[in-house]
Amino acid sequence: MDKTEKMNILMVDDRPENLLALETILKRPGLNLVRAQSGNEALGMILDYDFALVLLDVQMPEMDGFETAELMRGNAETRHVPIIFVTAINKERKHVFRGYEAGAVDYLFKPLDPDILQNKVNIFLEQYQQKRALKDLTRNLEQTVRELEESKRVIEEKNRLLNDLSIRDGLTGLYNHRHMDFVAGQEFVRANRYETDLSCLLMDLDYFKDVNDTFGHAFGDFVLKEFSLRVVQSLRSADLTFRYGGEEFMVLLPHTGITGARQTAEKLLADCSGTPYTDGSASATVTVSIGLASVNTHGPESAEALIAYADKALYRAKAEGRNRVVAYLDKSPGSILKSEMPAGRSIRYLKEQLSAILEQTKIASIASLQLLAKNKNVGMPEEHNRRVRYYMGLMGEKLHLPPSIVETFNRAAVMHDSFKGLMLGPLMKSKRGLTDEDRRRIEDSAYVLGELTELFDFFSDERSILFYHHENFDGSGYPEGLQGPQIPVGARLFALVDAFVAMTSNRPYREKLTVEKAASELAEKAGAQFDPKLVALFLDIIRENGGCFSSSNGAPSR
Question: Which segments of 290-381 does DSSP mark as H helices, in order?
């Protein structure tokens, strides 16, 4: 008998003629009719078969049907098998209730009506088929889930390996230079936001070319890998190590001031000078020069500046004889002209210092412009401007933009609001609706902003933002009808953030929108007025930060 494909029915009766009668009525293809002539025999068979139904006589010697049913219900493997009592006893309520208490699902009274028997049996066979189909489906789904989970694990592992390949140096296993730029920007922003310290160590293995020339590049590679291992082992888990390039390395020490950075550097210096590199065939002592800089001690304006300060300190360490630690101590423009400056570095240093002077000039010009707008009493919306710059900073983090680029966006925002106040001050305070002349003046403002910023040649990047921030992503904007990527990303970003802040701020001529309504407006205009990718990122920021803004500290309120 095929116990898996056919549906099994157990017939239990102590009289063979009754079993024959049941078999005659029920026999058909797809059914396997199993006989038992006692309760004990039935209990033995029920463990060997998967029964769809049990037809159980009540009156049997030794163990009657009630006792047999109760034992079946007491077994976890058989308690769910439906039982129909087939009995010749009278229909008194006490007998019927006892049967149901024993676990019966139905009663059939002798003499049996073939049609009634067939109908009742068919009901339970259909339920059994559905149950078996559901069980098979569940088993298949579980298998599919296991396969999907395994596939997900494999994909995640491959993605992790691919990500490691993209951000790590193949020889040393340290983070590479490209990832260094991204991480340094993040750590610098974090240090400023939470008012903690951040130190940078820039290291160069001394006379490394001589090592390669003397012992060969294979040994040189061994030294690079061994030095990387020594650095990592001497640091905390939160510290970050990068291969800057060639034999140069960089370490970022979060929450660490110049004193702690110097201690770490001195430990590395002593380790290199006191422990030779030995690979079994060659041995050499290779010292290291280290330059230090920190955020709180040296006050860099960006992560790039922090690294540049450490770089200058490194050049001093090498110029003063190598195998030493030097901190960047003097960042005034005139300090580069001192006789201690390394030969051949004057042009590079001079360019860096002139760039610093230009940056200070930009800062002073922006401050003067803000003061002019304030003195003219044009009502520059300082709260609006603070919120715009705050969200521009969050978007810069989302887009992994360097701090210098984000600062360009912020300067453009300040210039926009200052110039707008100077040009359109009365309109900004007016509670009446806009006239055609008013609209013309507003639409011409992009040209005026562009013309005004031409007075400052060093504000060319900011000028592109101010000139094109009224362009729409679908090409329907002004002044030149640019479309999509033709619009500078700074202009696209400023237009989005400025619109959101404006919608969620009170105006004389209308009430502010809720954050939810403003977000809905941005989503509705994505692809038309705004860059859809930037909208998606900005909506993430709104969800993450609650869309609220506290003017007291420049951060979203929780």
Answer: 295-298, 303-319, 346-375
Q: Distance between CA 253 and CA 241 in Å, rounded?
A: 9
C-alpha distances (whole Å) from 142 to each of 136, 138, 437, 546 are 10, 6, 69, 39
Sign of the C-alpha dihedral computed for residues 385, 386, 392 and 396 taken in this order: positive
Please give the single-letter amino acid code of residue 283: S
Half-sphere exposure of 536 (CA within 13 A, CB side): 5
The full set of domains in the chain, from first to last, is 7-137 (3.40.50.2300), 177-331 (3.30.70.270), 376-545 (1.10.3210.10)
Alpha-carbon span 310 to 304, nearest angstrom: 10
CA distance 288 to 309: 18
**Per-residue pLDDT, 526:** 93
- In a 13 Å sphere around the CA of 410, the CA atoms on its Cβ side amount to 21
Number of C-beta neighbours around residue 529 at 10 A: 20
Task: Point out the least confidently predicted range of 44-48, 328-332, 475-479, 494-498.
Answer: 328-332
Distance between CA atoms of 461 and 405, rounded to whole angstroms?
A: 9
Beta bridge partners of 292: 201, 327
Q: Which of 356, 363, 417, 421 is nearest to 389 (CA)?
A: 417
Q: How many residues are given for the chain? A: 558
The helix (run of H) or strand (run of E) holding residue 330 is: none
> For the chain, what percentages of helix, strand and coil (3-state, to nearest 5) are there?
60, 15, 30
> Does the pLDDT of residue 215 top 70, yes or no?
yes
- Residue 59: is its pLDDT beyond 70? yes
Per-residue pLDDT band for 451 (boundaries 50, 70, 90) equals low
Contacts 24+ apart (CB under 8 A), 37-43: 37/12, 37/13, 38/12, 38/14, 38/62, 38/63, 39/12, 39/63, 39/64, 39/65, 39/67, 39/68, 39/71, 41/12, 42/10, 42/12, 42/68, 43/68, 43/71, 43/72
d(CA 523, CA 533): 11
**Greatest CA span in the chain, whole angstroms?**
122
Average pLDDT of the segment spanning 462-471:
84
- Count other C-beta atoms under 10 Å from residue 16's C-beta: 10
pLDDT in tens, 480-491: 899 998 888 888
With tokens 């691919």, the residue in question is 162
> Catalytic positions, please?
247
Concatenated DSSP letters for 401-445? --HHHHHHHHHHHHHHHHHHHHHHHHHHH--SPPPHHHHHHHHHH
Kind of pairing between the strands at 51-57 and 7-12: parallel
Q: Compute the distance between CA of residue 34 and CA of residue 21 in angstroms, rounded to an integer.
A: 13
